[in-house]
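Usage

Read records sequentially. Each one opens with the input sequence:
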Amino acid sequence: MNDVISEIVRLPINWHPLGGFDQRTAEAIVRICADRDISESVETGAGKSTLLFSHLSRHHTVFALNEGESLTMPLSSPLLRKEVVTVVEGPSQDTLPKHQFKRLQLALIDGPHAYPFPELEYYFIYPHLDPGAVLIIDDIDIPTINNMYQILRVDRMYREIAMIGKAAFLERTEAPLLDPISGWWALQDYNKKKRVVDHSMSGYARRSAHAFRRSTPAPIRKLVRTFFK
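and closes with the structure output:
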């Protein structure tokens, strides 16, 4: 198995028609996941990662379209452990909401990249992540996907493991699950940070008003106050 994984890791980026992980990122996946007990894993999209996860997980589910043979290539590869892979073909926007998930120890979000689809995929996957599960978010060089990454990396539900190339690796902590139906925004650490930023902007407004009072003649200040009454 080690020889097979090494062969997969060395596959070039252009092995898959839609691209894929470079060798450094593939090595990071193996390094982070190889010693974990992964019974169930999922990914949106397919490619070199599908080959890797078929060896790192006892059962792997793929949610993908066969665009540009994106499914045909990994499914026909002799490097794939076909017996452990289940394919759910179709748009993840349609297939994920209907899927009956088991508890997950590994998930990769790498399906449709336009906003808000990565967030939609995350919404249907995150409630099923076990404590200790690895969540991989690919293509964080895309601004909207990076926004999601920035929110999750400071959330108490995750611990950041690494950022390799364009992929971010997070680990699910023991923190309580944010309720997917009635989750309260104030429980999220990113929002607490944003409130600090907003507060600093309020301070900026106060300082600007003070500077205006000091530098503006009284008759003009009076005129401004009259105008804004």
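Summary fields computed downstream for this record:
- The chain has nine helices and seven strands.
- The CA atoms of residues 223 and 229 lie 10 Å apart.
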